[in-house]
Specification:
This protein is of the alpha/beta class. It folds into two domains: 126 residues, Nitrogenase molybdenum iron protein domain (Rossmann fold); 132 residues, Rossmann fold (3-Layer(aba) Sandwich), CATH 3.40.50. Helix content is 47%, strand content 11%. The strands form four sheets. It has a four-stranded parallel β-sheet with strand order 9-8-10-11. It has a three-stranded parallel β-sheet with strand order 3-6-7, sandwiched between helices.
Length: 350
């Protein structure tokens, strides 16, 4: 009986050993499957959390709420100024294309940055925009807004911004675009850099007595540009310069007659330099004023205060507007305000 019991016990233990040996791989396999499932679940949770953290909304200048699933990697804007703004907020490789005028050093102060972007556009159609596969399109409200609805119908996020005409609107647009590209902190930083630069310029302007402040008239390729309400007019105020057109009551968008120019009698004339790639006769445009007998009494012509400002600065409505302020002051008041060509404010870390 004892023998029989021991045999049974021995057999039972042998059976248990055999089954433990067989069960160990099975248990291990089940454990691996369980861990794999748990890790996959964790990844899904982390991914969902990341997507939720990355996704954001921005309300554009027209009050439209634009949903962004993630920070854009192929940004397209439909103006030079908005291109320049974006190039101060993200690296060039985040842009799908830039305006072709950014390659022209007469018009652009960001030529080296523009060269790092492959694509070029010039008033593109909806089809041309879609072909670039942008994940964000930024459109100024002075442009062709008929494209906005069509682009949104294609599922492309479109943010409409103001066509800024003064410092306050430029800063507002910088912050809007910064939110659109998912970099609001850089927008705040960029505005801070603008304010710092302006403060330095105005500190020098304070040293110029009020009775020594000079007047200027801008002769532009755009004959109706430069009156009150223009970005040039706002820049003149910060530069401590009297904008002759504005003082004469000429608003931006209104023509200035030669009789009005005589009445203004500016201390300085700003001459046009942009020739539109040889399609605009700058010499002829200047000659209409400088060789006109009726204008020879103008102080600026008589004393040869005829300046060629850097047009990449004085027409600038991006964060680099501040360099336009300095350019105006430099051309009117001299070397105390001198600056190099190609200056650009950027909040992108090197």
């Amino acid at each position: 009986m004892l023998h029989t019991w021991r045999e049974k016990e021995h057999s039972l233990r042998g059976f248990q050993r055999v089954n433990r040996t067989r069960l160990l791989p099975i248990c291990g396999l089940l454990l691996v499957c369980l861990l794999t499932f748990m890790l996959a679940g964790c990844r899904d949770i982390r991914q969902a959390a990341t997507e939720q953290d990355t996704a954001y909304e921005v309300t554009d200048a027209q009050g439209t709420v634009v949903k962004m699933p993630a920070k854009p990697q192929r940004i397209l804007t439909l103006s030079m100024s908005t291109d320049e703004t974006v190039l101060g907020l993200v690296p060039p490789d985040k842009m799908a294309a830039v305006n072709d005028l950014l390659d022209d050093p007469v018009s652009s102060n960001v030529v080296p940055l523009a060269r790092q972007v492959k694509g070029r556009i010039k008033d593109p159609s909806v089809e041309e925009i879609a072909a670039l596969q942008p994940d964000l399109v930024i459109v100024p409200d002075w442009g062709d807004l008929t494209r906005v609805a069509s682009l949104r119908d294609l599922g492309i996020p479109v943010v409409v911004c103001k066509g800024a005409r003064n410092l306050a609107e430029i800063e507002e647009t910088v912050r809007l675009i910064a939110r659109a590209v998912g970099e609001p902190e850089r927008g705040d930083k960029l505005v801070g850099m603008m304010e710092e630069k302006l403060a330095a310029i105005q500190e020098k302007v304070k040293a110029i007595p009020e009775n020594e402040r000079k007047s200027v008239v801008l002769l532009s390729l755009m004959s109706t540009y430069g009156g009150s309400g223009s970005s040039f007019d706002d820049a003149c105020k910060y530069a401590g310069v009297i904008n002759g057109r504005a003082r004469a009551g000429i608003r931006d968008g209104q023509e200035m007659s030669k009789e009005q120019l005589v009445a203004i009698n500016p201390d300085v004339l700003f001459l046009p330099t942009y020739n539109n790639h040889g399609n605009y006769d700058v010499a002829s445009a200047r000659d209409r004023y400088l060789s006109d007998p009726s204008l020879q009494t103008l102080r600026a012509i008589r004393e040869e205060h005829l300046m060629e400002p850097d047009e990449a600065y004085i027409y600038n409505c991006s964060q680099d507007f501040v360099f336009g302020v300095q350019e105006i002051a430099y051309r009117v008041y001299g070397d105390a305000f001198h600056q190099e060509a190609g200056e650009h404010l950027s909040a992108v870390d090197d």
